[in-house]
């Protein structure tokens, strides 16, 4: 890339930073093979070209200040492809992951932690070893995250999360019933059991190659307040200049998106004023050290009160009966500890270590 | 280079501390007169101030040039000026590398308005592109009134417009509507709610004409049960009107999703007898229906999946299932019992997002969204989406 276009890009990025920058971008890198065929270099070379594009887009995103980039590298459905193509992809993933975690200037400069999302038990042994090494080496990086979905489908992710939560219930780590006003298995707990547990909500989802499907990618994450874009070009043709209008459109929507996310939180807190007050009291007692955990807890309270609205009859009957004595906030704390210990032990995902992003 | 910077620091420090000490002296004098208790304190603080004061330190700093860490740690109270000056004095050889950072910072600050201007220009340009596209669509729509009538009232017209060249048609069409029926103040807006009902009735007409079996409509607020009945009446009425030229009027059923726990029991039933679940779905109250209209609300998205986990957990505690039994196909039969996967999703909103449509079901759904919602009639979008779907090619991962 010439110096001129590099400078232009840097200037454009600086200009974009005057507006809001997305926290989490998802990319469906579709059209590598078709591009390879189009420029007559074959399927395999298409993948390599696609990887180069990924590196470039990743660098741009990091320069802008995007915290998480999630890419769809390989779907579980892709195992249906001819064996030589699958082998090429495995080989590519192996070399590039090793390269990324050991000698990548980009990873070092921006402190990127690499995560591999998906059912890695389907992969050959050597690829799994490389993945484990890459994740382990970059485990401590907490400034940005690169999520490689490999081999991933969203349904597998949701099934995995459901299964692990149910196994937690079977082992009596978690309680499926509603005790007083708290409930262990809330929407946010399910969200925390997914592979993207330590990532902020997804802001933009981009699919290249002109297809208008999600193809089993990030169904949960993209389902609410996520700007989706279908771009009509093959992935290796995707450049910063094609990303630019998408970012501009996102910036126009950023304020309504943030507002509706806030309302989603606030609307349900307002339903239950008592608990809100108790939370404030709690935060003053415990002090600033637990501020972050409290925020999460408030999040859980939100989910709970929302359940109240749907199953109000259940709440009143149970609240009168069993656990009327204990204060709800104490129960919330207890439950919060239960959930977090579950997430760190039984529900732990080795390829997606929990990290608090800076 | 080394000599001017210590001199500078000395001069800078020589200026301010003397003033400071005199002011503290005045302070202590005043307080001595006022109270004896505080006298001790203030004298101590004054002494501390003098001891801590950098006015004494400049003598030691040039001596401890070799150890910049100690000087910086001792002068932490003074903050940045000391730290910076000591750094410049100690790292004179690397001064060439540290000065560009300041220069670049200044340049960056100077460039800030420029960047902001560029930011505004980018958005302006983008806005222009969008308006041009909207104008183009407007012109297109204006010149296509005969192909796409704005308000098709009869099934014959819709069938003609759709044509017979569609290679494939969706059996389940999903629509995301923007009209919430609730204003910002939280009150139910009657006219908007009425518009929404009219839109649903219209979509039901068109879908049945095309031969769609299931129509799921996403709304941004839950629908009240009494409104559901009103909607059913309205749909029945419009269907009669729509098919007045034909002998048989198709029957449409409006419903919302059943509670999650029922879908779980359906799966257990299915284990016993396979066919009952299918018959249950097709038969409702003893009569068959041609179009199944499902009204969805945001609670049917993430929260429904979480609720499902809770009910599975309860079933697991009752020993009805074990966690090993939960596979993708198990969840699929369970979640698809009430709502099938839509093949085509039309978004009738300005912005493209999925508005909490049940995430499990939109895996392979074709998502159609026209960016110029304001100028294009819904009917045109409906037809375009069908044509877009007909020519799409799904490879299912291959």
From TrEMBL, chain A:
E.C. code: 2.5.1.-
Pfam families tied to this protein: Prenyltransf (PF01255)
Signal peptide feature range: none
Transmembrane segments: none
Top-level taxon of origin: Eukaryota
Keyword Nucleus included in the entry's annotation: no
Entry keyword set: Transferase
Enzyme class name: transferase
InterPro entries, per the entry: UPP_synth-like (IPR001441), UPP_synth-like_CS (IPR018520), UPP_synth-like_sf (IPR036424)
Cross-referenced SUPFAM superfamilies: Undecaprenyl diphosphate synthase (SSF64005)
Family statement: Belongs to the UPP synthase family.
Name used for this protein in its record: Alkyl transferase
Annotated organism of origin: Linnemannia gamsii
From TrEMBL, chain B:
Pathway: Protein modification; protein glycosylation
Source domain of life: Eukaryota
Entry keyword Membrane: yes
Keywords for the protein's UniProt record, in alphabetical order: Endoplasmic reticulum, Magnesium, Membrane, Transferase, Transmembrane, Transmembrane helix
Catalysed reactions listed for this entry: n isopentenyl diphosphate + (2E,6E)-farnesyl diphosphate = a di-trans,poly-cis-polyprenyl diphosphate + n diphosphate
Biased composition (Low complexity): 85-98
The protein's required cofactors: Mg(2+)
Region (Disordered): 1-98
Subcellular location: Endoplasmic reticulum membrane
Family: Belongs to the UPP synthase family.
Name assigned to this protein: ditrans,polycis-polyprenyl diphosphate synthase [(2E,6E)-farnesyldiphosphate specific]
Classification of source organism: Eukaryota, Fungi, Fungi incertae sedis, Mucoromycota, Mortierellomycotina
């Amino acid at each position: 890339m010439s110096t001129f276009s590099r400078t232009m890009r840097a200037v454009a990025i600086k200009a974009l930073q005057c507006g809001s920058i997305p926290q989490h971008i998802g990319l469906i890198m579709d059209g590598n093979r078709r591009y390879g065929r189009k420029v007559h270099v074959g399927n395999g070379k298409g993948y390599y070209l696609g990887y180069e594009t990924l590196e470039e887009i990743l660098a741009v995103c990091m320069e802008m200040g995007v915290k998480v980039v999630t890419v769809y590298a390989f779907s579980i459905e892709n195992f249906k492809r001819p064996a030589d193509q699958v082998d090429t992809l495995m080989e590519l993933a192996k070399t590039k992951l090793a390269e990324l975690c050991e000698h990548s200037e980009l990873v070092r400069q921006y402190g990127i932690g690499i995560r591999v999302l998906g059912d890695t038990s389907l992969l050959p042994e050597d690829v799994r070893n490389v993945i484990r090494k890459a994740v382990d080496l970059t485990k401590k990086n907490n400034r940005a995250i690169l999520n490689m979905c490999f081999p991933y489908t969203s349904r597998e992710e949701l099934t995995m999360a459901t299964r692990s939560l149910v196994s937690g219930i079977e082992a009596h780590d978690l309680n499926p019933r509603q005790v007083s006003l708290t409930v262990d298995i809330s929407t946010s707990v399910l969200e925390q059991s997914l592979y993207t547990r330590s990532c902020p909500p997804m802001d933009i989802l981009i699919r290249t190659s002109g297809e208008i499907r999600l193809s089993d990618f990030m169904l949960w994450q993209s389902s609410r307040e996520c700007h989706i874009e279908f771009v009509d070009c093959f992935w290796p043709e995707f450049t910063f200049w094609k990303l630019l209008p998408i970012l501009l459109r996102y910036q126009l929507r950023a304020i309504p998106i943030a507002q509706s996310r806030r309302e989603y939180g606030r609307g349900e807190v307002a339903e239950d004023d008592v608990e809100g007050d108790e939370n404030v009291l709690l935060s003053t007692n415990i002090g600033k050290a637990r501020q972050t955990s409290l925020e999460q807890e408030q999040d859980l309270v939100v989910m709970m009160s929302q359940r109240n609205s749907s199953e109000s009859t259940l709440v009143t009957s149970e609240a009168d009966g069993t656990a009327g004595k204990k204060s709800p906030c104490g129960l919330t704390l207890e439950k919060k500890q239960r959930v977090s210990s579950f997430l760190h032990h039984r529900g732990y995902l080795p390829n997606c270590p929990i990290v608090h992003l800076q | 280079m080394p000599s001017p910077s210590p001199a500078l620091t000395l001069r800078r420090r020589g200026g301010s501390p003397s003033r400071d000490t005199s002011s503290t002296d005045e302070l202590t004098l005043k307080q001595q007169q006022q109270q004896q208790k505080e006298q001790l304190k203030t004298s101590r603080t004054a002494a501390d101030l003098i001891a801590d004061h950098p006015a004494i330190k400049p003598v030691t700093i040039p001596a401890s040039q070799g150890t910049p860490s100690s000087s910086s740690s001792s002068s932490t109270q003074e903050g940045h000026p000391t730290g910076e000056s000591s750094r410049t004095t100690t790292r004179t050889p690397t001064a060439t590398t540290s000065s560009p950072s300041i220069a670049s910072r200044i340049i960056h600050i100077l460039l800030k308005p420029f960047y902001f201007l560029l930011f505004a220009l980018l958005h302006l340009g983008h806005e222009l592109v969008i308006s041009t596209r909207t104008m183009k669509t407007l012109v297109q729509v204006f010149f296509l009134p005969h192909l796409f009538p704005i308000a098709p009232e009869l099934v014959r017209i819709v069938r003609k417009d759709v044509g017979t060249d569609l290679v494939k048609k969706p059996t389940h069409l999903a629509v995301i509507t923007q009209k919430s029926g609730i204003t910002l103040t939280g009150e139910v807006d009657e006219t908007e709610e009425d518009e929404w009902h009219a839109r649903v009735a219209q979509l039901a007409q068109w879908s049945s004409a095309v031969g769609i079996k299931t129509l799921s409509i996403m709304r941004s607020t839950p629908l009240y049960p009494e409104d559901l009945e009103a909607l059913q009446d309205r749909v029945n009425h419009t269907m009669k009107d729509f098919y007045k030229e034909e002998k048989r009027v198709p029957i449409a059923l409006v419903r919302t999703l059943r509670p999650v726990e029922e879908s779980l029991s359906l799966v257990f039933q299915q284990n016993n007898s396979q066919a009952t679940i299918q018959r249950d779905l097709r038969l409702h109250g003893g009569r068959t229906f041609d179009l199944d209209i499902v009204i969805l609300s945001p609670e049917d998205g993430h929260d429904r999946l979480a609720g499902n986990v809770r009910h599975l957990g309860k079933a697991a505690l009752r020993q009805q299932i074990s966690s090993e039994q939960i596979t993708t196909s198990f969840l699929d039969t369970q979640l698809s019992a009430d709502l099938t996967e839509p093949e085509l999703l039309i978004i009738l909103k300005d912005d493209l997002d999925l508005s909490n449509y049940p995430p499990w079901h939109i895996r392979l759904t074709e998502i159609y969204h026209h960016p110029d919602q304001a100028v294009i009639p819904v009917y045109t979008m409906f037809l375009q989406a069908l044509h877009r779907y007909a020519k799409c090619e799904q490879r299912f991962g291959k």
